[in-house]
Amino acid sequence: MKKLLIVSGLTGSGKSQMVQILSEQLKTKVIPVDSLQIYKNWPISSNWPKKLNNYELIGKYDGLKQTISSYHFKKDVMEILKQKDNPILEGGCCFFMNYLLNSRKEQFEEDQIKAADLEAQKLLENCGDPQALLKQHFKNYDDSINTSDRYRIQKALRFALLTKGESITSPFNQEDPRLCDEMDIRGFFFTEPQENISKKIYARCDEMIRQGVIEEFYQFYQMLEQTEFRVTTPLGYDEFVNLLKCFQNIFEGRYISNRRAEKQKREYVLKFIQQFYIKSRQYAAYQRKYFRSNLNQFLWLDNRTLNLQQLILQYYNCDRQEYESKVVSPQNEQFKNELSSKLLGKQNDPIPPKEIQEIVYKAVQTIIEQ
What we know:
InterPro entries: Dimethylallyltransferase (IPR039657). The protein is of the alpha/beta class. 54% of the residues lie in helices and 7% in strands. The chain contains 15 helices and 5 strands. It has helices spanning 15-26, 70-83, 94-102, 110-125, 130-137, 150-163, 179-182, 194-211, 213-223, 237-252, 258-294, 308-317, 320-327, 330-336, 354-369, and strands at residues 3-9, 30-32, 88-90, 184-191, 298-302. The chain has a 5-stranded parallel sheet, sandwiched between helices. β2 (30-32), α2 (70-83) and β3 (88-90) form a beta-alpha-beta unit. α4 packs across α6 and α10 (237-252) runs antiparallel to α11 (258-294). The longest helix is centred in the C-terminal third of the chain and has 37 residues, at 258-294. The termini are far apart.
């Protein structure tokens, strides 16, 4: 059975750096399991690697024109797996990873799915009430889909058309094998104590701001019709839009002193950065929880371990029985169920450095004054 090496982990845990080393040593390609890196719009927000020559799929799609589902992502990955020898999967997108490894083939053929997608698009073109449209096509619909999420609405309509209103989720052929049944999965999940990973997450957010993430957000904002359905956007984007509108309201205000306006803008900047930190930290907590509950094929590793590269290669090259015994070992369970990790998303609001606050302030002020 062919092996598949997967390196995943919390945001900021160092998986990308490790994968660069492993890909060079194994002389193989890297496939990002990341719902944003596949779009060309977010090189800073999604932390593109500095060297792209070893990577597949990065920047392949335009997020303003396409929304790539987990189904299409898996299709792309399966094509690469057929063509490349022993590629490494790297990333922490929970749903993409779970769908890739554990989903089965859909009951319907690709031509049927495409036809249903096109029909769903036509139904949505001039639709003023998506909820009513969903109720019309589903036998039992509970208003559970956010009507601002274009991708989920279209996906739900596709399933309604394919199943004649019976199912809102993808119907799979239960007899079809999963990728985790067809390949010898060697998965590694990098973890670290909460206080360490939180500091790294904040530092990563700071570096994104230094690199120009505010300008990246604004460039996308300018090209995006605000009346359209929601597209795929990174952590911090919605908060940036709110910040921009706050600055705009102050700029257009007539009955506010310059001193008060300046104070309010500084407060808005501080709130934006703190929200950026907190959203990123909360996502790391979600990653840990999701992997612990849904992806049992992974060996959890403390990323501060010495000789981590050698340890990964050891369990990548060992026989299947040895790897599986390590996965179900008490030590692995201890890493997975670290009690302090439950607090990862519930910490005091961090105070960003003055330098970072100033960068954000000047960037947004420049945008408003243009």
